[in-house]
Amino acid sequence: MGQRWSNQYAPYGTCPNCGWTGRDWGFKYHNFCRTCYNQWRKKQAEDRKKFKQQKLKQPNCNMEIADGLVVTRNVRERLLKQSHLEIPFTKRLRWSELCEGIGIYSSLIIIFVLIFTYYFSNEYALLLVICAITGYFIALLGNHIQKIESAKHGQKVNARLEHLARSRQQRIDEASMFYASSEWRLVRNQFLQEQGRICQECGQEIKDDFDLTVDHIKPRSKFPELALDVSNLRVLCRSCNSTKGATYDE
User: Fold this and answer.
1) Tell me: the pLDDT tens digits for 228-250?
2) Is-contact 76 69, C-beta < 8 A?
């Protein structure tokens, strides 16, 4: 029989979920006991599955970002995520959120203290009223600044999104013009006649013309001067070409 783990030397603790107290190896890596941790992981897996199912219910469709600029929903989400990463929130927006939170919480605390002093001591009532009104106006000011900065940040993100989408469309148009040019078709046909229809990555013979591709070893987007260089070409099937993408290792 295999070796069984013993809880004799396991860490001692109390599970915050079920309240069980004892020795369990689960306390060494997380705060839950082993049973609650397995239930938590199961719930996380179910939530991820539900999220994927909800995402699959939204079919991919074309969306218009600007006049004459159309991308798919998945491309827009990817470019929007990149735009948010490139344009972080400003310090002024963060300070406005902090001021709003401080103003709201301070006003609530002062109101509770004011109620307390009204019943027991009326000496500092006027001062507390002034502090509560000040905190309320600080919260209003922070909310106003937050709306202005959020609108400015949204405009910058949308402008960056449009710029990335237009750059992507420009690269697609340039690639279409290049691969439709007579120079590329001449080089491609001569290279295929010399090399044959064997994929240089997986070694399979490519029988279907649709799966037959001529790949640039050094990507054309990064090395445009080698676009028509025969030494920079290789025969790949469409599957291997899609897996390779635009990556290049020195």
Assistant:
1) 888 889 998 888 887 765 555 54
2) no
